[in-house]
Write a sequence for this structure.
């Protein structure tokens, strides 16, 4: 194997120390392979290195590994556990495609890119942690991950990393358990069919930076009932929200091209971008006021306890009354 002596016995492979690059197709279609001991020197796993190793159950990759090649573990249908090193920066196209037993994978903080179809067809994958430094998610990266309901740490919520600027085509295609998505502030585009068939998705708030939504991006999101569009949006592709019968009303900037993006029954209100921004600021102010109103008794109670603990209140109650009046004077107008 590339001049290296590799020991394979009873389905267990031991790669020699000093090896830095596992060649392409090193264990291609070795269906009897159960486990692999990786050397600490390994930095790269070649394309299709473990393709269709259907008996491989778990892998513990070395800390030195920086990159996983295309289709490296594609078709490893028994693979249920993967430990990725903290220094890993890229996962190649189809790297873990059709690893149908894979339930969870913790992606390392150094990871910047996930290739196309990297986890497509991982039908048991229920949760995945997307690191903050991730900048690229390839097309169909999580396509048909029908059990996927959690990204990051909140159940049934996908919080996309802050550095992400684009969601590629069909990235979360048919992730039917996803119920909400939190988009990063710098996101500029959502690709074709990115969330197609995410039938549990109930609402979407799109970031102010977003300019384009691809065709069919949210098609067949049958539970989607509310979408907040940014004022700077310039285009919504054909059928982007087709098959969303619960989406009865939307407000879209009149500068955006929308083609046949929405179902015929959806009422589409077109407003100038400035008007949309003004409305958004108003909604945010109202939300803030309502949040304050809910918390006001707790806030004042905390202030009162703190002042009492400091011995600030005398027996006549004057200081206590003064604090109450100042508190209401500062914040009372928010909820009148």
């Amino acid at each position: 194997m590339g001049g290296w002596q590799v020991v394979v016995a009873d389905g267990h492979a031991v790669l020699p120390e000093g090896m830095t690059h596992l060649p392409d197709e090193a264990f291609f279609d070795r269906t009897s392979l159960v486990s692999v001991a990786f050397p600490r020197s390994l930095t790269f796993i070649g394309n299709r290195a473990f393709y269709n190793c259907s008996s491989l159950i778990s892998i513990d990759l070395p800390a030195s590994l920086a990159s996983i090649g295309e289709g490296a573990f594609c078709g490893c249908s028994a693979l249920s556990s993967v430990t990725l090193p903290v220094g890993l920066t890229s996962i190649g196209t189809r790297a873990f495609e059709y690893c149908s037993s894979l339930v969870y994978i913790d992606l390392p903080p150094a990871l910047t890119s996930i290739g196309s179809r990297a986890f497509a067809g991982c039908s048991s994958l229920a949760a995945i942690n997307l690191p903050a430094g991730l900048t690229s998610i390839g097309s169909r990266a999580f396509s048909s991950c029908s059990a996927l309901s959690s990204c990051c740490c909140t159940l049934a919520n996908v919080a996309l990393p802050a550095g992400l600027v684009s969601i590629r085509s069909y990235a979360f295609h048919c992730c039917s358990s996803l119920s909400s998505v939190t988009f990063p502030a710098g996101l500029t585009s959502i690709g074709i069919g990115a969330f197609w068939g995410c039938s549990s998705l109930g609402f979407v708030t799109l970031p102010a930076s977003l300019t384009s939504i691809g065709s069919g991006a949210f098609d067949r999101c049958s539970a989607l009932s509310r979408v907040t569009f940014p004022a700077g949006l310039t285009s919504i592709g054909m059928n982007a929200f087709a098959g969303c019968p619960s989406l009865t009303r939307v407000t879209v900037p009149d500068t955006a091209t929308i083609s046949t993006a929405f179902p015929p029954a959806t009422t589409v209100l077109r407003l100038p971008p400035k008007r949309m921004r003004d409305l958004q600021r108003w909604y945010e102010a109202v939300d803030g006021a309502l949040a304050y109103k809910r918390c006001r008794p707790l806030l004042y109670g905390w202030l009162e306890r703190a002042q009492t603990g400091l011995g600030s209140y005398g027996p006549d109650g004057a200081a206590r009354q003064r604090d109450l009046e100042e508190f209401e004077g500062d914040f009372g107008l928010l909820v009148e």
About this structure: The chain has two helices and 24 strands. The CA atoms of residues 18 and 259 lie 58 Å apart. Residues 273-309 form the longest helix (37 residues). The helical segments are 273-309, 318-331.
